UniProtKB/TrEMBL annotation:
SUPFAM superfamilies: GST C-terminal domain-like (SSF47616), Thioredoxin-like (SSF52833)
Record's keyword terms, sorted: Transferase
UniProt name for this protein: Glutathione S-transferase YfcF
Species for this entry: Pseudooceanicola marinus
GO molecular function: glutathione transferase activity
Gene name, Swiss-Prot/TrEMBL: yfcF
Entry-linked Pfam families: GST_N_2
Domain of life, per lineage: Bacteria
Amino acid sequence: MPYELFIGARTYSSWSLRGWLMFEPFGLPVKTRMIDLYGGNVAQQLAENGLAPARLLPVMRTPKGHVLGETLAMAEHLAEAHPDAGLWPAAPAARTAARGLVAEMHAGFTALRGACPMQLLGQYKGFEVSDAVAADLARLDELFAHAETQRSTEGPWIFGDWTLADTFYAPVALRIAGYGLPVSDRLAAYTTAMLAHPSLRRWRALALTEVVERDPYPSDLPRGPWPGPAPLPARAIEAGMPVNATCPFSGRAITDLAEIDGRILGFCNPTCRDKTVNDALAWPEVAALLG
């Protein structure tokens, strides 16, 4: 059986994103369950799902039925249960540094978090950076520079290869992108790589299918396009002849259609269709159909 991961609204819940990124990039099987983060009693919903005494998101249930919340605890459990998955860097110096970075992110950067809540709808224009936020950004650059001295592999991620450090710092990159924050070349390159990561693109494509009754972090700033990779032109349609016989995700019968970059594809439900319309190339199953 796969793990179960209970999450909140993908557009805004950075902690939920952090939980999901402990699974998806490492190929660990997980089934996500949605909790109404902004419109209901979270602790009550968790209790109704047999997850008490957990009261915050995300929460995971292991294949053996054990319940665990708090992302640091979840990370260590998964690293222990899946030692060959590469959740922590293999080199001892890098692994030690990664644990330090993760702990600091878990407890720190309160100015950046408070001023720039994660949102995936677009990039705010004209955000004014306070001294406290600037200090957090400088600290980020300092930590990333130190990580470069500890890594044993090269790559776009904090320690070269993707690790739990990137799982914990991914929401920071999305904050940098979502508010157009002025950062060093090092952090700008990391943000660009994060926006292009297939797991992040899939998360955002799913986020855009969800309806949140109200923006939990409203702002008067104008919002421009999302700065990530541009999706293929796509739209939902009512009729047409799809190039595929069954849904590329489930293999089930086709009930919904979309035109993707000039081709008609069929899907088994509106969510499969809409997440594809939002970013077709984020999904390998769809990319294969498009050639």
